[in-house]
């Protein structure tokens, strides 16, 4: 008779249910796994065999067949070890078949029968809850899976512990959700002297999720400013925390067990590979753009990133989703991030300083920033020149608003947006609004319409540019607590765009 166990196969952030069937029959002794397994799944055979031997359970001299169903769904990873071992133990009547069939399991087995943590326990627990099964996973994965309240999670140290649980010798207690201590001690915006315009741009970017690029000489404080972004963003809402944690779970980054409410802040180096940034690789894992979902992607020394990476970024920026290809399928991961980029104006960095610029100025600046193509530069709603701070400014005591004060204004502006988009699931910030909806929520008054008309005549704004100005102006009005789009809001939005026109 066939025994059944259940597990999942991952497709992007989705965990699809998989049935593991195990039949033990008379015939030439063998142990076969069928149903589109990859190499890691096929190797499960050896690990399961060794783990059972370690528990003094010998495999019978019979034909053992394990089938992973549905057969057309690709099965990747080492987490199939535990469900295969469960199905086999149930087929051998060592574990109760009905109880095994009520459980969804994932986990890798070490040769001595210890359970090794695997990525994806959180999405697996979501699927287990939908299927009305409990989840059995390795000890370290328990705290993250237990966040799915609707699912009973059992987290075991070893296969021996699992057997003792089912036999009633030593029942396990359900796992508790893990807590991650709130991150404190963010670097404060007040530490940055001067640079009022850049700080204002940071606040607008945070409030409406508008992409921002800071251009300035080395040492002017660009990296310093960008690192303050994390401290002015509001914590993740509950649905956002779950979305982001699913991706971090798949990347195996939730090993402390907790779900964090802090917005992710990812700062990949420009030498990181395409797969590391965009996603993909042998196991089609999420890249930095997806790990930054609902948070910040900071790309320091932006023009130094390979051109192929920069070009590939355009589509994910626009759609909030990235397609990652692997051997036989494409998967997509969400990647709705706030892009903050920093760049020197030219390779040596002194283009804007007449005293120190090299002999190739200004052509070298066009060469350098021109490497990130026009259409990509067009994605930045806010483009800020960061001048070097004068020594006299550095010498002054810290002034301006602290991160906490700015964060409160950002949170209030985000609350206005949440209310505005309450009937539009999927839209969260002004940056997400498009077409008809954008025209409704950001209808300029007479004066600002005249201003926009003049600006587009003079600077030749593209349709995309025009809409981007409206979005930023809407956020500026939200920060001011104003329902109407007025001239000062539009004028300020235009000022961040026109630097751009000059650079293009
Ligand atoms: N506006 C500023 N206020 C205070 N310190 C500054 C400022 N700008 C730069 N610095 C100092 O200079 C250092 C280098 O700044 P950094 O952000 O790395 O510059 P960049 O990224 O533009 O090359 C900072 O660590 C800080 O000590
Ligand atoms: Mg820097």
UniProtKB/TrEMBL annotation:
Keywords: ATP-binding, Nucleotide-binding
Record bears the keyword rRNA processing: no
Alphabetized GO MF terms: ATP binding; DNA binding
The UniProt record lists the keyword ATP-binding: yes
Ranges of residues in domain AAA+ ATPase: 208-390
Entry-linked SMART domains: AAA
NCBIfam families listed in its UniProt record: YifB family Mg chelatase-like AAA ATPase
Record protein name field: Competence protein ComM
Originating organism: Salipiger bermudensis (strain DSM 26914 / JCM 13377 / KCTC 12554 / HTCC2601) (Pelagibaca bermudensis)
């Amino acid at each position: 008779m066939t025994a059944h166990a259940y597990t999942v196969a991952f497709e992007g952030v989705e965990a699809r249910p998989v049935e593991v069937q195990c039949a033990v029959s008379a015939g030439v002794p063998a142990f076969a796994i069928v149903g589109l397994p990859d190499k890691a799944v096929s190797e499960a055979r050896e690990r399961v065999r060794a783990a059972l031997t370690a528990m003094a359970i010998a495999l019978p001299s019979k034909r053992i067949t394990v089938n992973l169903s549905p057969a057309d769904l690709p099965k990747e990873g080492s987490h199939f070890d535990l469900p295969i071992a469960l199905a086999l133990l149930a087929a051998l009547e060592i574990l109760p078949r009905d109880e095994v069939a009520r459980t969804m399991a994932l986990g890798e087995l070490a040769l001595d029968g210890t359970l090794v943590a695997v990525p994806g326990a959180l999405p697996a627990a979501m699927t287990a809850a939908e299927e009305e099964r409990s989840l059995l996973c390795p000890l370290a994965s328990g705290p993250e899976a237990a966040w799915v309240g609707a699912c009973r999670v059992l987290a075991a140290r070893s296969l021996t512990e699992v057997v003792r649980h089912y036999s009633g010798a030593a029942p396990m207690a359900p796992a508790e959700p893990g807590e991650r201590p709130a991150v404190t001690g963010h670097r404060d915006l007040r530490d940055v002297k001067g640079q009022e315009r850049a700080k204002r741009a940071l606040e607008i970017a945070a409030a409406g999720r508008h992409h921002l690029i800071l251009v300035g000489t080395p040492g002017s404080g660009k990296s310093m400013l960008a690192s303050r972004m994390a401290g002015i963003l509001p914590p993740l809402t509950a649905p956002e925390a779950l979305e982001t944690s699913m991706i971090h779970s798949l990347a195996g980054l939730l090993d402390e067990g907790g779900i964090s409410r802090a917005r992710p802040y990812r700062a990949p180096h420009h030498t990181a590979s395409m797969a590391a940034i965009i996603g993909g690789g042998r196991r089609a894992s999420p890249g930095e753009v997806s790990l930054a979902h609902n948070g910040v992607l900071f790309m320091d020394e932006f023009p130094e990133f390979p051109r192929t990476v920069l070009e590939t970024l355009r589509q994910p920026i626009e759609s909030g989703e990235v397609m990652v290809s692997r051997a036989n399928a494409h998967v997509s991961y969400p990647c709705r991030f706030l892009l903050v980029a920093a760049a020197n104006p030219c390779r040596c960095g002194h283009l804007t300083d007449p005293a120190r610029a090299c002999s190739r100025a200004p052509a070298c600046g066009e060469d350098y920033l021109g490497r990130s193509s026009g259409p990509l530069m067009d994605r930045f709603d806010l483009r800020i020149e960061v001048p070097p701070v004068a020594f006299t400014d550095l010498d002054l005591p810290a002034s301006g608003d602290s991160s906490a004060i700015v964060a409160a204004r950002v949170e209030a502006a985000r609350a206005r947006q949440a209310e505005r988009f309450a009937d539009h699931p999927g839209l969260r910030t002004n940056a997400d609004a498009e077409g008809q909806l954008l025209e409704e929520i950001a209808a300029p008054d007479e004066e600002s319409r005249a201003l926009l008309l003049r600006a587009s005549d003079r600077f030749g704004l593209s349709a995309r540019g025009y809409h981007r100005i409206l979005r930023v102006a809407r956020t500026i009005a939200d920060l001011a607590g104003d329902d109407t789009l007025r001239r000062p809001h539009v004028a300020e939005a235009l000022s961040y765009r026109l630097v751009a026109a000059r650079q293009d």
